[in-house]
Amino acid sequence: MEDQNLVYTLDEALSTIGFGKFQGFVFAYAGLGWVADAMEMMLLSFVGPVLETEWGLSSGEQSVISTVVFAGMLVGAYLWGLVSDSFGRRKAFLGAAMLTSGAGFLSAFSSNYITLVTLRGLVGFGLGSGHVFTSWFLEFVPTPNRGTWMVIFSSFWTVGTIFEASLAWIIMPRLGWRWLLAVSSIPSFLIVLFYGLTPESPRFLCMKGRTTEAHHILENGALLNQKKLPPGILVSDDHVIELKEDFASLEDTHLMSSTKKKPNNSSMVTIFSSKLTKTTLLLWFLYFGNTFSYYGIVLLTSKLSSDQSKCSSTALHSESTKDASLYVNVFITSLAEVPGLILSAMIVDRVGRKLSMELMFILGFILLLPLVTPQHAIVTTASLFGARMFISATFTVACIYAPEVYPTSVRATGVGIATAVGRIGGMVCPLVAVGLVSGCHQTAAVVVFEVVIFLSGLSVLFFPFETKGRELTDSLDVL
Predict the structure, then answer these.
(1) What digits encode the pLDDT tens for the residues 153-166?
(2) For the whole model, what pTM was predicted?
(3) Triad 326, 327, 329: Cα angle to 5°
(4) What are the φ/ψ torsions at residue 8 (nearest 5 degrees)?
């Protein structure tokens, strides 16, 4: 009977059962979602130039193929966040995977430009759910070393980019772009196929008052990890204070499943509450700046490779570079993220999220600085490699920090809106990276990126919360 007088929270349960086979499956499934997203994004690097020749597209029409994907992601990031916070993480990524896989596969059969652009826009809408996988996995990870595991999870993006480059290298010269589009949709189909094996987030269930279901999932997790749950009753953060005040009434309660709910404020009201307004606005700027600079550095790599020779005698590659060099370049730039991931994993749980981002913004700024003036090919390659390494690492830590600062009730929505704002940066950066460099204005382009990187690093200093070692919260009251 003593056990019935005890209570434990979700974080205490997760810490007790530890990280084992249970989280390993969640890790693999959510990682598959990120691999699928990365592949669908990276294929644009290979398909666009081919279609420009095959269909006689203008440079503007070619850029629209990428722009509609970002536009779809902008809308999808917000809407899938709402679905996730209202109906569950699983329903959100199921709907998104069905849309992405279907539209991605059908785009391989596009007979004209309008059909392709429409279908790729739908793919982008589905890809907007990427942050839901992050929130879902995060909510299964014990607080100790949570940052390290989230960095390791982020490596799936790099795996996806390298795998897509491998596929393109094999398929494009032999079978063409249609086969690449079709094969690249397979990971999204796998998400749908294995959906039935996935558990709902117990944190989401606790937030909705469905603690019995959450307890059942945790029991299965403890069994898989060969551990036991703490003795007592599972409670959500919302009920801890209430339970302490009226503890005697729980003596005959076998398992708590609350029927009392606090008034539901809208997600936007919560996100812009007095406790979160500053954090929300700073996150929007951070995501905009990070996305702008990350994709900008990726585009700078290709533009300086192809266009610098017409502006000066210094060039990364000669104009006679074969098509295969495109795949090699993707490998090189993608591999630049690996040391950044390793560094992030080493420091994120030691020095904290804010200081990690600050240090890597500074290093990224310094390494990009030499390109304010044209440099020798080796210096240019090394500078871009190093800048991408650190800017991608700040992006990784930002994707850990954002879901940690929001309570469960608005976590996916808050991160979704921040992601959507970031996609605006992704849509704008080609105007700088492509437009200015193509017009032989490398200095202006690099200065713009440096200013954005500097301001992004500055914004991190003003975040009111450090989330290192802090338990995830279910409500605004415990922030």
Answers:
(1) 888 888 888 888 88
(2) 0.74
(3) 65
(4) -145, 150
